[in-house]
Amino acid sequence: MITVNPDGKIMVRRCLVTLRPFRLFVLGIGFFSLCFLMTSLGGQFSARRPGDSPFTVRTEVMGGPESRGVLRKMSDLLELMVKRMDTLARLENSSELHRAAGDRHFPVDRLPAGAGLMERIQAIAQNVSDIAAKVDQILRHSLLLHGKVSEGRRDQCEAPSDPKFPDCSGKVEWMRARWTSDPCYAFFGVDGTECSFLVYLSEVEWFCPPLPWRNRTATQRARKPLPKVQAVFRSNLSHLLELMGSGKESLIFMKKRTKRLTAQWALAAQRLAQKLGGARRDQKQVLVHIGFLTEESGDVFSPRVLKGGPLGEMVQWADILAALYVLGHGLRVTVSLKELQSNLGVPPGRGNCPLTMPLPFDLIYTDYHGLQQMKQHMGLSFKKYRCRIRVIDTFGTEPAYNHEEYATLHGYRTNWGYWNLNPKQFMTMFPHTPDNSFMGFVSEELNETEKQLIKGGKASNMAVVYGKEASIWKLQGKEKFLSILNKYMEIHGTVYYESQRPPEVPAFVKNHGLLPQPEFQQLLRKAKLFIGFGFPYEGPAPLEAIANGCVFLQSRFSPPHSSLNHEFFRGKPTSREVFSQHPYAESFIGKPHVWTVDYNNSEELEAAIKTIVRTQVDPYLPYEYTCEGMLERVHAYIQHQDFCAAPGPAPPGARAPESPFILAPNATHLKWARNASLAPGAWPPAHSLRAWLAAAGRACTDACLDHGLICEPSFFPFLNSQDAFRTLQVPCDGTESEMNHLYPAFAQLGQECFLQKEPLLFSCAGSSSKYRRLCPCRDFRKGQVALCQDCL
């Protein structure tokens, strides 16, 4: 260690390390170099074909350029070590000389040892340099020999003309011009020769037929599937907390939430296990990649966790992780691009090549940011494995926006759509888009004792405003609204601030500042009313308030907010119209727990507040937002949703043998005939189908709700036939098949029936005054709209 004394002289402290560890170090370097050389050359020679020269390097085997490069790096590293050791040695000798001058004698036995050590390191560096040069010569010579040997096989390294592989010759041309554009091609053995192009295009990608002279033993050897393991419910979540990682405020928030709900998850697992009655559940290997938390996507959420920023996404992701783990599945969690690449097996390069190994995960849960990252780095493997992906999508993605060609041609293309996935692969926070799957989240469930305590401790004149950021309080006209509310209630806020009170918050509002979740829950348990200012849309807080015995008061939007008239929804892949701040609370819960009024109508607002003050409500939480409800739903999806092996729908207009439909006694809709054979593998079960012809201008989503049912897009293929229209007694003068997200439908003008040509465009959403849509509906379990009566 070097120190400077007060006089400015440099003093060198003696290192406590003796020469013996250095000898071991030198010996280790020598052994490592020898092992590396044997591995590098052995990798070259072990991959040869029978009859090849020992120095013939096959084009698909990697190691040549990499080996030379690594050896050069080793040589450079050792030379750098020599220079630094030489500097240390001079300092050491200088120190010894100074000490000797003071002691009048010099321990000369140490200098030769140090010099010997330096000589040995220099010798190793020279040897590694010589080895690199020799390997370079050997590989150059082998490539020359390989070129001569290849002349006899030139006819075998021409792009074959095979109608089964029409893109082969075009891909070879592309490789000739662009194979150096991405290092991943060299990683897989491409070296600029025709043979290497064909080997890559037939064995790594699948654009060319297998080469007949190739040894197919290794490539044809099927990967043995891992033995199936039964999933077992878990109640201890400590390992999950480790899997979630640390270092980000968002992750800390998620872990605290999971830890707080551990007891409820354990109880829910116990209940679901009893309900399933010991049915076998295969354990799935699941990757959860939270793309919006990666640095590459900007991670705008983590810095705002402690400043009142939105927490809804983190609430949902924490609950998804907990549900998957409690259900007993194998789980891997990534929040960085580097972790994602490592877990997927992404080759080095720019993302144009397939993965280096079969995907080790049965399911991948991610978001739009993660989906984009996977597409950029998985190459052709993205298309191969995208059926395993589930996209957590707060506001939903409608089929018209999801189909790339259709969206581009008809003006539905946005920054977030056009992925050509099965729309059910998108999973929403609330069940507002039946074309997608409803994932949801959970709210804390109270036991009966806690409910009684809350009812007894409520303050009848206390209101809490929904809005932690000061910007939410800038609502136009809020002063008039708050002044009316202030006549009847004491108003509380939880707006974040650092030093000074936010000027947007009126003086008569008692602001508690940003509260930790447990303290916020306690505030809700005392309050009578929870007030929404119109934003944020569809968050978890209103459900938490209702679960703690509050009444939720929100604004009615007129006209409804959508991507056509509101900046927040612009660019989102949905045409959904939002009639209030929280449509789920309005439609699925309603009065007395939820009041939706026109805030611009002072009389209506004041009358609602007076009624709320007089009304006593019990804490209420919909079953689908309990831990058990979410476990039940996620379990059903994992067991039954298979977008990889599911059979394709029947072609448009195909008539099923022996029509499975019968007309209901009142002749209003179709039902699945009792004696009809059930569609194998159909989920939900086909017998839950009810089909209605909607009124003109009515979407299937609304048409099914009108009859107390849920639109089920999985049933569209059954209805996409002339037989369905005929059984429903629709007078079709003609029938055509086209790509249109409103089909199948009946056009009254012209008496023409239209069938769907593109299965990805089957859509519950969408309407037109031109058409009466043929809508597939189903029943649902009480408190669980995502599942039909027999879906579990």
From TrEMBL:
One of its GO terms (molecular function) is alpha-1,6-mannosylglycoprotein 6-beta-N-acetylglucosaminyltransferase activity. Pathway: Protein modification; protein glycosylation. The chain crosses the membrane at residues 21-41. Its main location: Golgi. Belongs to the glycosyltransferase 18 family. It is a single-pass type II membrane protein. Residues 184-777 form the Glycosyltransferase family 18 catalytic domain. PANTHER family: ALPHA-1,6-MANNOSYLGLYCOPROTEIN 6-BETA-N-ACETYLGLUCOSAMINYLTRANSFERASE B, ALPHA-MANNOSIDE BETA-1,6-N-ACETYLGLUCOSAMINYLTRANSFERASE. GO terms for biological process: protein N-linked glycosylation. Keywords: Glycoprotein, Glycosyltransferase, Golgi apparatus, Membrane, Signal-anchor, Transferase, Transmembrane, Transmembrane helix. It is found in: Golgi apparatus membrane. The keyword Cell cycle does not apply. One of its GO terms (cellular component) is Golgi membrane. Signal peptide: none annotated. It comes from the Eukaryota. Pfam families: Glyco_transf_18 (PF15024). It catalyses: N(4)-{beta-D-GlcNAc-(1->2)-[beta-D-GlcNAc-(1->4)]-alpha-D-Man-(1->3)-[beta-D-GlcNAc-(1->2)-alpha-D-Man-(1->6)]-beta-D-Man-(1->4)-beta-D-GlcNAc-(1->4)-beta-D-GlcNAc}-L-asparaginyl-[protein] + UDP-N-acetyl-alpha-D-glucosamine = N(4)-{beta-D-GlcNAc-(1->2)-[beta-D-GlcNAc-(1->4)]-alpha-D-Man-(1->3)-[beta-D-GlcNAc-(1->2)-[beta-D-GlcNAc-(1->6)]-alpha-D-Man-(1->6)]-beta-D-Man-(1->4)-beta-D-GlcNAc-(1->4)-beta-D-GlcNAc}-L-asparaginyl-[protein] + UDP + H(+). Its EC number is 2.4.1.155. This is alpha-1,6-mannosyl-glycoprotein 6-beta-N-acetylglucosaminyltransferase.
